[in-house]
Structures are given as structure tokens and as C-alpha cells.
Amino acid sequence: MTTVLERGNKMTPKGSKSTSHGAFNFIAGKWVRSPKGGSFENINPATEEVIDVYPDSTAEDVDQAVKAARKAFDSWRKVPVAKRGEILLKVMQVLVSQKEEIAKAMTREMGKILRETRGDVQEAIDTAFYYAGEGRRLFGQTTTSELPDKFSMSIRMPMGVCGLITPWNFPAAIPSWKVFPALICGNTVVLKPASDTPESSMRLVKALEEAGVPSGVVNLVYGRGSTTGKYLLEHPGVSLISFTGSSDIGSQIGASCGKSFKKCSLEMGGKNAQIVMEDADLDLALEGAVWGAFGTSGQRCTATSRVIVHEKVFKQFEERFVDRVKKIKVGNGLKDTTEMGPVVNKGQLEKVLEYIEIGKNKDKARLLTGGERYTEGECAKGYFLKPAVFEGTPKMRIAQEEIFGPVTVLLKVKSFEEAIQVLNDTAFGLSGSIYTRDVNRVMRAIRDMETGITYINAPTIGAEVHMPFGGVKQTGNGHREAGTAALDIFSDWKAVYVDYSGTLQRAQIDTHD
Ligand code: NAP
Asked: Mind listing the pLDDT tens digit for each residue in 349-369?
């Protein structure tokens, strides 16, 4: 696992002062420095310029944030759910009014093109709207009792302080998937965002502050995952950890939560595939594969990193795909004409280049286009890569391991059955897609794909906020985010029995002789 330092963000000495008024932690309703911590730089991946400096928080900072959240929990959990929903509605309004500003800041700090960062903020807006509505629902169940004069119901209870650890690829959407359902359920939170995207989370938290979230309900601590993240994870005052990131780190987080009996939701990596059958609408399949593989420079957990194509249309698809990929306009995401921005940091760039070498020299796959840095023009500076397409076979490392960059591999198959078998043949199980006009194959694909998300005649990317999001196998640990499924992460069920018989009634015993 690479650290922030190794990936290109530079740490500055402990105790050094932040150069920006905005670069503070948010603890107990105040923007505060880390008195004893160091700091790290937020770098623009398109220009390599330093945007700002943020605190590298210590265990004491995390402790203060958790204590503030714990203190606020006692009153926040008693605020009527509809009132909590109204605050989320205000958050939504603030985000709508700042959408363009936040999107630009996000493009500047993580590289994806403006059209996509606007989509990222829109996802946060939609999520706020969705969970604001939950303020008038948050349904439990009422049911019958096996005994007379007895009433049964189950209700959702808040859990306490939620520690939220998030990645950089959706820096508004993913924190909002965690913060908003956590709040509507009556929890308080401490957010530790990715070190590559500190400004986006600061803006999200400022929107919450502006909307009137009471002090201590939402806290933000910056710093390295291996230190600040770990302090949060191991803090005894935290009841639940919700993590999105790599499977390597997720597995460590799951183990730590297991030892301390913390509830833990993990959303992790993917090696997603799009199947193109011989009867597919090839224009549509082609467009879907280009968007799925190279949107966000391939840095989506749902990215199409494998395209499985039926042999009857393989040659035709390959030629047209490679031709289209060569024409992708790479550049600074702030420019309207750009189709693909840089990768997020130097470490990620090096990791992708390493996989290109593995593909060429160890796997002996055929590199059909791309896979190099730019040596001249506007992309010579910054972490830009030419989008890469390999032709390979299913067991190759480039077809098995998550690369998380603008690289995809084409795999040829002879039949529908083989296509499904190849699609399932990885350690991950996040998203899968099939392009076909055959309704029987569609239904079999829905049944047989080992994925948490299945698309028919659509790319592997493009989740909507009211649908459950997550995966099987090494992608997740059984939870789902978004929609009503996220409420199961952020609340505990309580079963309530009200006996109004005035006598002792014994379940299972008094009902039968
Ligand atoms: P990552 O390296 O696993 O980091 C994710 C978060 O964990 C960051 O905030 C990171 O902090 C923190 N962290 C790192 N080490 C930690 C530790 N030992 N203890 C506690 N926290 C720690 O992942 P990433 O590079 O940011 O994101 C890319 C990965 O996320 C990919 O594998 C992608 O598939 C996955 N992802 C999954 C989903 C999904 O829903 N399934 C969605 C998006 C992304 P620093 O930033 O300071 O290192």
C-alpha cells in the first residue's frame, strides 16, 4: 500500500503552520488547527502545483473530534427525524447554489473533467434530497404477536459515533453517501477524507455547517490513513466504521473492527467487465465501453477494466474501439473540450505504468494503443497518460488485478457461457454489463453474474443514489450503500414487545401444551 508521501503529496514538518485560512480540521463546530500535527500539500495533478496545505492530524486531534461527536450524540439522537431531514434539505440547497464552485475545486485537486465533477456534486445533492425525504419515513415494522394482548414492532436506533473513511475518486459523492444516512439515522460523525482531495470534503462540511448542523454532529479530521485513519479506526468511542477504498486497506480495517466488535461496512475494489455478444448493437456497446473504461481516467471502482467480446464481432469491435480510444482528448479537466484528465497523483501514475510493463513483458499481452506519458504539449507536465488498450487472456495479471487507471483489456470468447465464466473469474464482484438483444441471455446474465450491480445494454458505471450500491466477493463485506440499504448500515434494529395482558405470558411455552 502506498502512503500519501509515496504517492506524491508532500508532508511538511510537525508544528509547521498552515498557509491557508481554510485548511483546518472541523471539530465541535469550529475550524481548528492541529496544534501538534504536521501538514500535507494538496497538489493539482494536471499542473503539479500546490493548491493548499492541510493538517496531518494527531491522535489528540482525533480524540477531540470523537469526544465532540460523542457529546453531540446525546442531543442529536433526540432531534425529531423530520427536523434532521429539514437540515439535509438545506444542505442540498447550499450544494445546489455552490455546485459549479465545488466542481471546479474538485477538478483542480483530483483531475477528472468538469462535466464529471459536476456529476459528483450532483450525486451529493441527490443524496441529500433522498435522505431528507427519509426524515418523513425511516420506517420500522409493526407486526403481530403469538400471544394475546401483546404488541410487537421493530424500530431503527442510531449507533453513536460513526468513523467515515473515504477515497479520492468521488470526493463529494462518497462522503455524502455516508454522512447523510448516518445523520438521518441520528448518529454523529467524524470524517477522515482521502488526502488527495481535502478541499472537496472541506466544502461539503462547510455546506453542512451553513445548513445549521449543530456543533459536534459533524467533525472533519485530515491526515494520513496510516496514522489519522488508524487512530479513528481504533478509537474506543467510535461505534461504527464505514470505509470505501482498496481491498488491501479494507481487509486491515475489517480485521481491526472485528477485534474491537465495531460494526463495519466496507466498499472496495473491482475488476469489472462488459460483455459484447455477437447480436449486440455495436455502436452502443462501443460507446459504453469507451465511457466505462476511460471515464474518470479509469479511476472508478466500477470502471470497465475488461471488455469480453464474442469472437464473431471481435475484430470489428477491436478496430473501432482502438480507433475511438486514440481520439480521446486528454488534457486539463477544466477545459470544456477535454474528455479525459490526468490520474490523481504521481504514485498512481507510476502504478499504472508498472502495470503497462507487466502487461507487455510478463503477461505478453498485445498493447494495441496508449500506455505512455506525454513528452510534449500541455500534458507533458502533470500526471497524464495515453489511454491504453490491451488484447489479452483472462488469467493474465492485467485481467485479474485492479489497475485503477486508463487501461482496459479486450478478451475474446466463443460463447455466452464462456463470457459469463470469464466475467466471474476474478476475486472481485462489483459491476458487470452485457450488450445483447437476446432476452433469454439477458435473464440468464442477471441470474449468473457474480456482481452486486448488473447492467443490461449499459456500461459498468453509472449508479443512481436510490439503488443499493456495493459488491460481492472481495469487493465488500455484505453491506450496501445508497438507497434504503444504507439505513441498515447506520442503524441498529430494536425489537419492542408491549404486553398489555396484565399477566406473565411465556412465548413458545404458553402457546403450546
Ligand atoms: P485507499 O488507499 O484504500 O484509501 C482509502 C481511504 O483509506 C483514504 O482516506 C486513506 O487515507 C485511508 N487509509 C489508508 N490506509 C489506512 C489505514 N491503514 N487505516 C485507516 N485508513 C486508511 O484507496 P484509494 O486509493 O483512496 O481509493 C481507490 C480504491 O478505492 C480502489 O481500490 C477503488 O476500487 C476503491 N473504491 C471503491 C468504491 C466502492 O464503493 N466499492 C468506490 C470508490 C473507490 P489517505 O488518503 O490519507 O491514504
From this structure: 999 999 999 999 999 999 999
